[in-house]
């Protein structure tokens, strides 16, 4: 059962290649980007356009609201649902995105943590608003101290809810042998030339601005977001918010957002070099 994975840093051309492959292979596209799961920032997170979605069916794009939290385990369960559905229809699933944790969880298997009751998840979200939430979690589950960052409320929430629901540390669950999925993965990684990628990042952000990225952030700021909303971590949100708050000029905000995007791409490439050694590497922009 063939499943295609296409990854690479932001702005490396994944979307265009995915569309091309989908036409060639009778495929459909499944999102593997943690930010593109969310509504409200389709321009800033470079979601596929309406026309691209009409051209080829896309799945798991813009499905979560601003108060929803995702996790690698949740994403794998959703991805598997669509993979199996597409295979049953004789289509080739093409997973596209740059969230390495999601892809590694899918291909290597994920720890068998039981489903967490919604009441416990909501309690974790409520507790996560406390400034000292990290100390609450570290006291409740000492095994995660030193393994989770104090400001990573999403992973801290996950650790708390797992311990509360199962009585076991998330570290213990992660140490259990993962169950491999019954797919034949074909993995492709786009590795762009540095200057080519930087030029694309800069040009793409200018295009995003002309397509309404600033207005997206302005509308997002008007929403009653939870402090740990993943949307606040989308590249460009902080920089454009600083401009809207009068802390920088628009030109400065745009340049800082481009820098942040280039830094994000560098982190993605670092992950590829360390974790995606069994991928077929395709050099682009040379």
Automatic annotation (TrEMBL):
<keyword id="KW-0547">Nucleotide-binding</keyword>
<dbReference type="InterPro" id="IPR027417">
    <property type="entry name" value="P-loop_NTPase"/>
</dbReference>
<dbReference type="GO" id="GO:0005524">
    <property type="term" value="F:ATP binding"/>
</dbReference>
<comment type="function">
    <text>Catalyzes the transfer of a dimethylallyl group onto the adenine at position 37 in tRNAs that read codons beginning with uridine, leading to the formation of N6-(dimethylallyl)adenosine (i(6)A).</text>
</comment>
<keyword id="KW-0808">Transferase</keyword>
<dbReference type="InterPro" id="IPR039657">
    <property type="entry name" value="Dimethylallyltransferase"/>
</dbReference>
<keyword id="KW-0460">Magnesium</keyword>
<dbReference type="InterPro" id="IPR018022">
    <property type="entry name" value="IPT"/>
</dbReference>
<keyword id="KW-0819">tRNA processing</keyword>
<comment type="similarity">
    <text>Belongs to the IPP transferase family.</text>
</comment>
<dbReference type="GO" id="GO:0052381">
    <property type="term" value="F:tRNA dimethylallyltransferase activity"/>
</dbReference>
<dbReference type="GO" id="GO:0006400">
    <property type="term" value="P:tRNA modification"/>
</dbReference>
<protein>
    <recommendedName>
        <fullName>tRNA dimethylallyltransferase</fullName>
        <ecNumber>2.5.1.75</ecNumber>
    </recommendedName>
</protein>
<dbReference type="Pfam" id="PF01715">
    <property type="entry name" value="IPPT"/>
</dbReference>
<keyword id="KW-0067">ATP-binding</keyword>
């Amino acid at each position: 059962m063939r499943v295609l994975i296409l990854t690479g840093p932001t702005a490396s051309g994944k979307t265009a290649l995915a569309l091309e492959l989908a036409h060639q292979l009778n495929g459909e596209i499944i999102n593997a980007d943690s930010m593109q799961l969310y509504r409200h920032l389709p321009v800033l997170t470079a979601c596929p356009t309406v026309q691209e979605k009409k051209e080829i069916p896309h799945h798991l794009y813009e499905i979560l609201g601003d108060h929803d939290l995702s996790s690698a385990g949740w994403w794998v369960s959703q991805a598997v649902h669509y993979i199996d559905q597409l295979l049953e229809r004789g289509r080739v699933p093409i997973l596209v995105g740059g969230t390495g944790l999601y892809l590694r969880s899918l291909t290597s298997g994920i720890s068998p943590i039981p489903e967490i009751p919604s009441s416990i998840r909501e309690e974790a979200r409520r507790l996560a608003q406390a400034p000292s939430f990290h100390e609450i979690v570290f006291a409740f589950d000492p095994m995660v101290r030193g393994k989770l960052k104090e400001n990573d409320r999403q992973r801290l929430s996950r650790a708390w809810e797992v311990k509360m629901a199962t009585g076991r540390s998330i570290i213990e669950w992660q140490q259990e042998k993962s169950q491999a999925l019954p797919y034949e993965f074909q993995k492709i990684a786009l590795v762009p030339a540095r200057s080519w990628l930087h030029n694309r990042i800069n040009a793409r952000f200018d295009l995003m601005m002309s397509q309404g990225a600033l207005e997206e952030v302005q509308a997002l700021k008007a929403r009653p977001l939870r402090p740990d909303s993943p949307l606040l971590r989308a590249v460009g949100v902080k920089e454009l918010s600083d401009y809207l708050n009068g802390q920088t000029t628009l030109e400065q905000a745009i340049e800082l957002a481009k820098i942040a995007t280039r830094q994000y791409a560098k982190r993605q490439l670092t992950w590829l070099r360390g974790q995606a050694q069994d991928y077929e590497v395709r050099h682009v922009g040379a």
